[in-house]
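Hello Y.,

Per our agreement to keep a running log of every chain we model this quarter, I'm adding this entry. I've kept the format consistent with earlier entries: sequence first, then predicted structure.
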Amino acid sequence: MLAWFDAYKDSLYRYLRTMIDNPADIDDVIQTTFVALLAKGDALRDIRHPKTYLYQIARHKAMDVIRSHSRAPVSLDGLLVEPGHDVMPKWLTAEQVNWALGHLTPIERETVVLKVYDELPFREVARITGCLLPTAATRYLRAMRKLRVLLEERHERA
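Predicted structure for the entry above:
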């Protein structure tokens, strides 16, 4: 259990940050996620995809928090690191990507974060978000197109 916590706590925090604004709520979700895992006991050995399983639990717990607050908070501050020049155009900054991510729908943003930042395959993105594999891939492609258009338009205006 401790190995799972050490391996996934940072990426799980980043993921939850795209859904929940309050750091205390994020900490609560992480805590309740790992408490739920502890309750599984020996059954944890049978889990074939621990990261996916962990993200599914955290997503459900985050949705509970969002529902309890009756709002859909989003804060992308601190989510991004400076993009590498080998992947992103030289003119693109973390702030610009952050701005563009803020213009995606919550499910589009969640899909991009899981695929790009957490480097999960589409199969795992689909499991976590509770959709079919083609749906996850389509959401990702549409979100990436939307990001590209937003960022290019913003760059041209600058």
